[in-house]
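Me: I hope this is not a bother. Any chance you could explain this protein sequence and its structure tokens? It all follows right here:
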Amino acid sequence: MDRRTFLAWVGVGWVASSLPVAIAACSSDSTKSDNSNNKATAANPTANPTANPTARADGFQPVGTVADLDRKGQILNKRLASGPVLVIRNPDDTNSLAAVNPTCTHKGCTVAWKTNKKLFVCPCHDAEFAVDGKVVEGPAKKPLPTYQAKIEGDAVLVKVS
């Protein structure tokens, strides 16, 4: 076999092996199998708290799991219909949670929780907000909207209204 034939076969093999990946990437999510054991239902809306971010009858929405909160120190969920939410454990009382809309009121950047400062800090202009959303240091002038949050089972729930 000469070099040109060998390289042609390598090229054909590469295309053939890449084709299933390309087809899978272009297919819609509706073709994925339904894992009913992990599906949130009306009877158990927190079976998979990040899969179904719809509000329950009491207005609370699942935003993540306690395991995620403990591992990362915060949960940022941008998939809620009401807008993004950032949840942390309250540093003054670790049995309670604090939840805010993480959109900085100055220019709209997403704030992050800084454990060492015990503040929400905007990466764009260094605005700082307290756990209760109040402005600690500008340039922001308005506080972050806050929400009611709680733990129920293994789910972290937030009530936006």
Remarks:
- Helices lie at 3-26, 66-72.
- Confidence is low (pLDDT under 50) at residues 28-52.
- The two ends are 72 Å apart (CA to CA).
